[in-house]
Structure formats: structure tokens, C-alpha cells
Amino acid sequence: MMQLLYEFGKMLRIDNALLARAVSTLGVAETLLLADRIAEQPERVKCPDGYLAKILGVRVGHGQLS
Predict the structure, then answer these.
(1) What pLDDT band is residue 66 in, cutting at 50, 70 and 90?
(2) Is 21 inside any structural domain?
(3) Would residue 66 count as lying in a domain?
(4) Are 35 and 9 in contact (CB under 8 A)?
(5) Of 52, 33, 44, which is closest to residue 65 (Cα–Cα)?
(6) Residue 42 carries which DSSP code?
(7) How confident is the model at residue 1 (pLDDT cuts 50, 70, 90)?
(8) Which of 18, 19, 23, 33 supports an S-S bond with 9, CB 3.0-4.6 Å?
(9) How many domains does the chain have?
(10) CA-CA distance, 60 to 66, in Å (whole number)?
(11) Where is pLDDT greater, at 43 or 65?
(12) Whole domain around residue 54: which residue ranges?
């Protein structure tokens, strides 16, 4: 299941490290559902990495959210 998630994330242009953080925070099944939700709305989610990071509250550069 993890391999499927990483391949799906690659297709969505989501960084592996960010996916790993999502899995450790949300679990595999929840992360897969979230990736599916991102894939369903490409016109709304222009930056899947940033979208996922915002959901996880990941800080990037100077403590800012992406």
C-alpha cells in the first residue's frame, strides 16, 4: 500500500518526505484518501505539495506556510 501511495504522490507532484510526514501524522489510509481528494480537484489545487503541507501545518523557509 505504501508503494501505491508513493507512486500516486509522484503522479500528483507531492514530495516523498512530505508524504512520509503525512503518513506518520494521519496514517496510510487517511493519507491515501487525502491524495485522492487532491487528485479529484486539479483546477482548485494548483500546488499539491503546498496544499498537503498546509493541511499538515508544515513550516517551510522562515517559518512560513507554503
Answers:
(1) very low
(2) yes
(3) no
(4) yes
(5) 52
(6) T
(7) confident
(8) 19
(9) 1
(10) 6
(11) 43
(12) 2-61
Q: How many residues does the chain have?
A: 66
Write out pLDDT tens, residues 4-60. Answer: 999 999 999 999 999 999 999 999 999 999 999 999 999 999 999 999 999 998 655
**Can you tell me the distance from the alpha carbon of 66 to that of 56, in angstroms, rounded to the nearest whole number?**
11
The structure's pTM equals: 0.78
Contact 24, 58 (CB under 8 A): no
43 domain residue, yes or no: yes
What Å distances lie between residue 44 and 6, 17, 20, 38, CA to CA?
22, 23, 23, 9
Cα 29 to Cα 20: distance, rounded to the nearest angstrom: 13
C-beta separation of 31 from 6 below 8 A: no
